[in-house]
What we know:
Helix content: 10-25%
CATH topology of the largest domain: Quinone Oxidoreductase, Chain A, domain 1
Bound molecules: NADP nicotinamide-adenine-dinucleotide phosphate, zinc ion
Amino acid sequence: MxxxxxxxxxxxxxxxxxxxxxxxPGPKDVRxxxxxxxxxxxxxxxxxxxxxxxxYPCVPGHEIVGRVVEVGGGVTRYRxxxxxxxxxxxxxxRTCASCKDGLQNYCEPGAxxxxxxxxxxxxxxxxxxxxxxxxxxxxxxxxIPASLDPAAAAPLLCAGxxxxxxxxxxxxxxxxxxxxxxxxxxxxxGVKLAASFGAEVTVLxxxxxxxxxxxxxxAHDFVLTSGTHALVPLAGRFDVILDTVSxxxxxxxxxxxxxxxxxLILVGASPVPFPLAAFPLIFGRRRIMGSLVGGLPQxxxxxxxCGKHGITSDIERIxxxxxxxAFDRAVRGAVKYRFVIDCTKF
Length: 346
Ligand code: NAP
Ligand code: ZN
Ligand code: ZN
């Protein structure tokens, strides 16, 4: 099946229109007409080979929302016309301990990622959502609540679940103090979600222009981190810090802002490693944990939570021809707070 989309052909060439093949739907597959796809910073890291494992051509995109337009004969969960989403992975081994626990994101042999993996045939690459259509096994398709604006719901498929999952894992709730580092796509969802769990939320940002937005998004406090001693008054303050920063930064001064036994959740995936000092961890028995998106059951739970509480992403809609400009603006932090591509225009 021929599909139109946008692809990167090398690390330093702009994305450009590209027509490619998708498999025809098998018995358990649904074919989705993509309406919207968010631009995650991971798409940028990946398209530009910043993590050093990209194969080209590469069609990014894993915040996908669209309508089911065809179902295979064995599909039971979806019907033509359903509003659905696809996130960061499209299959997994389904038999390992993580898959059995509904944590397909941590599939031991590795989940099949929406882009940059290999299809089941072992040779064709998977291509993401910067495209008109995608074919996905129904088990890996999510239902989008009817109460949400479909375009603004698209970023929930990555930015939403990536922040929801570790906050839930740590039991974030009323009475807890949460700091969100980096007010971008992930960060602004982290603020909305932590606030919806009843936590007191502080934004730690290096952009003075975001102070007013932080409050509007649900934060109780905003601290500009670019000053030399900006974090000193926050020593020992937070139960949890959600670190969404996409580039190299100073972890150590932020760790000091945790209470005893506090946890810094690292979800930002800086391609450049950063130094870790022993003392901020040792004094205070503090922890750093990583977290990778979330499993399918929890992704549906997150979508339903957002449906119930009216939570979506703040988005800027763009046409496919604006993708390269959007990449550059996202890197400069000049987006409020997620670009979403109108995929009907490819
Ligand atoms: P984004 O929208 O570009 O936001 C990143 C934010 O980080 C910026 O808004 C900025 O916030 C801050 N920042 C950027 N450069 C900085 C620098 N040099 N120093 C200090 N702060 C800086 O990106 P995103 O889509 O939210 O993604 C964030 C990161 O998470 C990326 O690395 C992405 O690959 C990763 N990610 C991980 C997962 C996972 O499963 N773990 C899933 C999705 C994405 P301020 O202006 O407020 O400081
Ligand atoms: Zn993502
Ligand atoms: Zn598995």
